[in-house]
Specification:
The protein is of the alpha/beta class. Helices cover 49% and strands 11% of the residues. An eight-stranded parallel β-barrel has the order 1-2-3-4-5-6-7-8, surrounded by nine helices. It is globular, with a radius of gyration of 21 Å. The termini are far apart.
Length: 306
């Protein structure tokens, strides 16, 4: 199936096939977080090959909430549709613990495929989950997580849809127990393992060696966390197949927004900030604004615009 999909043009490939092709083309594949459709457009213009909708990012930037399992299945699917409508890059979606039991997970997978997502990752925390880099995480049994993975696999109507099993167990149970879990998740049908909160490259190498398959491990390079800011080159040397940068752009945009808000109060103007802003011309270029406007001009040429 993979060879056949790689022979297709990108426009002929499913989202899952495009994600798999990107994994083959990049070693490792950077997968960048996008908080909204416009960020997805910007990531594509920058030259990226895959994008990511983070659960914590969606909670914070779409709803003003902390990353504590406060969003819902329908809210995730709504953001997925908005992003896939605007951008053709393959989208990996963070689905936390699956938003319920096995039937909820099946409904989720079918919805993601219908709405154009390429991949998901589902984790082995308890339903009332926490950020993966916070203390006191609760982890379900290996058997319960295996059932989650099998539910994803069984509900997959498109075989190319990519399923990633995330384990948060390293911080709670140690490296060997986390590796044992990862192997069980792959045996259950996961295409890749997301090893959360690794602190050393040797830990990634241990996961890669134990799983022993192409595209075995994904790393999470999230700033100000338990994981150092490893480079793509360093991660590739450890055998990592993909690296998430889930909130990098979000954090930069939030810091810039705070600076603008404070500058207005302090200086009564944004003049000193203009050099740090995207210009109107750059915005129009990214959105192909003038092509839309030209269509209006053609439709209403010689008559008053309604």
């Amino acid at each position: 199936m993979l060879i056949d999909s790689l022979q297709k043009t990108p426009s002929q490939q499913t989202p899952g096939e495009r994600f798999r092709a990107a994994l083959v083309a990049h070693k490792p594949l950077p997968v960048v977080g996008v908080m909204n459709p416009y960020c997805a457009v910007l990531a594509e213009r920058a030259g990226h090959s895959a994008i990511y909708l983070a659960g914590g990012g969606m909670a914070t930037y779409s709803h003003g909430l902390p990353d504590l399992a406060l969003t819902t299945l329908s809210e995730v699917l709504q953001d997925v549709r908005r992003i896939t409508d605007a951008c053709d890059l393959p989208l990996l979606v963070d689905v936390d613990t699956g938003f319920g039991g096995m039937l909820n997970i099946a409904r989720l997978v079918k919805g993601l495929i219908k709405d154009g997502a390429a991949a998901l990752h589902i984790e082995d925390q308890v339903t009332l989950k926490r950020c993966g880099h916070r203390p006191n995480k609760g982890i379900v049994s290996t058997a319960e997580m295996v059932d989650r993975v099998k539910s994803c696999v069984d509900a997959r109507s498109d075989e190319s849809f990519f399923i990633i099993a995330r384990t948060d167990s390293l911080a709670n149970e140690g490296l060997q127990a986390a590796i044992d879990r990862a192997c069980a998740y792959v045996e259950a049908g996961a295409d890749m393992v997301f090893a959360e909160a690794c602190q050393d490259l040797s830990q990634y190498q241990a996961f890669v060696s134990a799983i022993d398959r192409p595209h075995a491990v994904m790393a999470n390079i999230t700033e100000f966390s338990m994981t150092p800011p490893f480079t793509l080159e360093e991660l590739g040397g450890a055998g990592v197949a993909a690296a998430l940068f889930p909130l990098s752009a979000n954090r930069a945009m939030a810091a810039a927004a705070m600076k603008v808000y404070e500058t207005i109060l302090r200086e009564g103007s944004v003049k000193s900030m203009l050099g740090e802003m995207q210009t109107r011309a750059q915005l129009y270029e990214a959105l192909n604004y003038h092509a839309y406007e030209q269509k209006y001009d053609e439709l209403f040429q010689g008559q008053p615009q309604r």
